[in-house]
Design goal:
The longest helix is centred in the first third of the chain and has 18 residues, at about 50-70. The chain is globular. It has helices at about 20-25, 35-45, 50-70, 90-105, 120-130, 140-150, 160-170, 175-180; strands at about 5-10, 15-20, 45-50, 75, 80-85, 110-115, 135-140. The chain is an alpha/beta fold. The termini are far apart. Strands 2-1-3 form a three-stranded mixed β-sheet. The protein has a two-stranded antiparallel ribbon with strand order 4-5.
Length: about 180
């Protein structure tokens, strides 16, 4: 916690995961480890080798805990899932309970974004991860969605990425809201 950490690929070749603290140091994904020696030494960056068996085990534990809160869960990747919160009252309490239980059971901090679509949920999760103090954020009204999407960079939208964003910027599409206005 609060320490820059990176995980290197097989044979410790390239960066495949980084903590927020490592990102702030300018450590990019896919960068060969040997190019980071100065940054690592000067900033006390903790470096770890991959351990896919451990990642799979921890992922299974987290997904199992998530499934206790909702029968409708879609596992998207080793560290991401979608849960159907529809019909649940007091979603923030359910989310707080999930965050607390997973942290207590696994030591892993999680963030939860709630919205009416998966893309909006990923945006809400991004906000929860970066800006909320409790790890939870919800987009609960159309007006609120629009105000957030007007500020949300197109490059951060799920499936867009840096290269497509650059092309969209050429056409004056800079935010998720600008993108929504396309026909």
């Amino acid at each position: 916690k609060n320490i820059p950490v990176i995980v290197l690929s097989n044979n410790d070749g390239c960066v495949i995961a980084r903590s927020n603290e490592a990102k702030k140091l300018g450590i990019g994904m896919g960068v060969p480890a040997f190019k980071l020696n100065n940054i690592i030494e000067n900033n006390n960056v903790k470096v770890f080798s991959t351990n896919f068996a451990l990642y799979g085990d921890m992922s299974s534990r987290v997904m199992s805990l998530l499934s206790q809160f909702s029968p409708s869960i879609e596992i998207y990747s080793v560290d991401e899932a979608f849960i159907d919160f529809s019909g649940m009252n007091q979603r923030h309490i359910v989310a707080e309970n999930l965050i607390t239980k997973i942290k207590k059971s696994t030591g892993i901090p999680i963030s939860i974004g709630v919205a009416r679509t998966k893309t909006l949920a990923k945006i809400a999760n991004h906000i929860a991860k970066k800006y909320s103090t409790n790890g939870f954020f919800t987009l609960d009204s159309k007006n609120y969605e629009i105000s957030i999407l007007k500020k949300f960079p197109i490059s951060k939208v799920w499936g867009i990425g840096y290269k497509r964003a650059k092309m969209l910027n050429y056409y004056n599409i800079y935010s998720a809201y600008d993108f929504m206005q396309l026909n």
